Amino acid sequence: MEHYNMSKGTTFYAIGLSYKKADAEVRGHFSLDETSKLAVLEQAKQNGIESLIVTSTCNRTEIYGFAQHPFQLIQLLCENTKGTVEEFQKVAYVYKNRDAVSHMFRVGSGLDSQILGDFEIISQLKISARFSKKQELLNPFLERLINAVIQASKRIKTETEISSGATSVSFASVQYIMNEIDTVSEKNILLFGTGKIGRNTCENLVKHTKNEHITLINRTKGKAEAIAGKFNLIVKDYANLQEEINTSDILIVATGAQNPTVDKHCIQTTKQLLILDLSIPKNVNENVTDLENVTLVHLDDLSQITDETLERRKAHIPVAEAIIEDVKSDFNAWLETRKFAPTIKALKHKLTDFAVAELDTQRKKMSDFNETQAEVISNNIIQKITNHFAHHLKGDDVSTDDSLELIKKVFQLEATKENV
Questions:
Q1: Whole-angstrom distance, CA of residue 171 vs CA of residue 176
Q2: Which residue ranges are tagged as binding site for substrate?
Q3: Beta bridge partners of 93
Q4: Is residue 153 within 8 Å of 108, Cβ to Cβ?
Q5: In terms of CATH architecture, what is 11-163?
Q6: Please, what sign has the CA dihedral across residues 341, 346, 349, 354?
Q7: pLDDT (tens digit per residue) in 157-174
Q8: Which Pfam family is one of this chain's hits (predicted)?
Q9: Whole-structure pTM value
């Protein structure tokens, strides 16, 4: 079907920007934290938008939703971030209807990830959908679409090897450290920030470096302690950040702050210090490179690391795309049914009205009128007629839109709101 209409005058869009055209600095301008996401949803409701979800990760920020024009969604994003419309237009993408659906499938299935097969985005989509549903901004169309994307993602994980091997941003950071630093197991490593990327990085550090000198710091100390307990690591207070930086050889920053949390004034040591900034927006000020002993690497640099694992993954893309098409065809079949369901329901009501009127006429004419038999026969005929029309509308060789219009015209059906 060409248009995914939620109500008259609205279209389904996907708007956003990603690592493909927007560098880390620009992505940072459009990054949304939890408070900002909630503000977008609340403003959307005020603006009369009926359904949308918002995602923001280190690699992309996107809004999927129904609007009269995509600018409504672009405006929501720009008014709740540091980004401008002009900046957005230079790096953004806007998809509608089928293309928007296809884009979500590719994103959720790891085919559009900065590192092929990195499935971390699917959990973000799940969380975003739950968030929208809680705010009553998740209509049946979007909920069904999210579930279909989750299904495709699961199948791709289990039926292909596109996510085989340890390759993700968090692993790439550890791989970089091991390639660049000699005797890494003897170095002092400080991990600042224990969100999802921080946790994954920590796990990879423990697994691959065999280092027993890893210290964790998080603004909320309890979160760091929960991870440290699992791996028997050291936890320090946020107040000790500067002191710990100056005793470290490697600093990994994976915080979710909207502004830099580390700059050159935090660094008083003269020994070599490698800093990896895995945050969007950037959480390490570029001024640290003014110090001769500091090397700064950002996640965009890490994502360029390619190895034989990624090459092997590429061979599984055709199978993954076939799985997506399979799941998408089921989604489209459901969508077609949703599209004509209101008309079939209105037709059934119209036929029932005919039957009631005719039964009333015959009841007056016949002294031996059999109420029970008449109702059974009329109900069966109504069901057979509506089933016949429904079967016709499901056919591949008919134009559903033309058929719906004809049915409405012939039976003089009242216009129905065709929510999908």
A1: 9
A2: 57-60, 113, 118-120, 124
A3: 16
A4: yes
A5: 2-Layer Sandwich (3.30)
A6: negative
A7: 889 888 765 556 777 888
A8: GlutR_dimer
A9: 0.69
